[in-house]
Amino acid sequence: MKRIALYHLETLLVIARLGTFHAAAERLGTTQPAISARIREMEAQLGIAIFRREGRRMVLTARGRQLVQDCEPLWAQFESVLMRPGEFGGAVGVVRVGSGEIAAASVLPDFVSEVERSMPGVTLEVEIDLTARMLQQLLGGTSDMVFLAGPVAAPGLHTAPIGNVPLAWLAGSKGAQRLQDGEAPRVWSLPHNSPLNMITRDSLTARSIAPATFATCNNVRTMIDILMAGEGVAVLPLTMVGEELAGGDLREVWPRPERRIEFEVAIRSNEADPVIRELFERAGRFAMPEPA
Fold first, then answer.
1. Domain count, the chain
2. Over the stretch 189-206, which tens digit does the pLDDT of each residue have?
3. N or C: which end of the chain has fewer CB within 10 A?
4. Runs of H (alpha helix) within the chain
5. What 8-state DSSP symbol labels residue 292?
6. CA 53 to CA 128: how far, in whole Å?
7. pLDDT tens-digit profile of 238-274?
8. Residue-range definition of the domain harbouring residue 66
9. Are residues 278 and 157 in the same domain?
């Protein structure tokens, strides 16, 4: 009888999901040579080649793909037996979470606090990035769950809405004064693939405004500092500028855009890890807070 340990199957399925031996080693808290040794042991026991080398990459063979396909539902069922609903307090592991900057400044802190309180054995690795890159990382297996601007409709994703954020046209004192003097605005926004960029351009078009310049920055916090120090104007989320508005460092210069930025939490649609699915369900219950 062929003898395969549970950690062999776990290793195989984690490699298949994350795509590389290196990523699997990080997830499982071991080394890449140890991962390679486990795969060699499996291949020796089963008498088949599970992976083959293509250049610098190791890819599943046809037999390897079939093995993953057959074992995934068995492993998910096994984990479900060990992790009954309501028993996630003892869950352990590392979960990689991607988040946009706006979500990170609003809903993410409360979510992290809830996970630390109720699932102390789960370690979150949070990375802040733009929506387009987060989607690539999620679909590529280097992230497990992401908070992003939506709505997002992509094959292979399972999403849940978590609310929206109101926006306003803001400027610092210099920028506001130049607008009052009739000068064409110097507009700032996130890069072109951001929903905030699209809303900014649509709002300019609706108001028939031709900006003197349209500059981009991939960091909202930096844009806020630019406006306070310089002459620009930007559409910004009100959830991130409460103190600046209250202190007079920023002021609203035009009527607010009608559109808001919608936010979602997303995982892969074929995600089988019960801990990640539980975190997804919990994240869907957190709503973006309204600005004070």
1. 3
2. 999 878 899 999 999 999
3. N
4. 6-18, 21-28, 32-46, 62-82, 101-104, 107-118, 131-139, 173-180, 195-206, 220-229, 242-246, 274-283
5. -
6. 33
7. 989 999 999 999 999 999 998 998 889 999 988 877 8
8. 6-82
9. yes
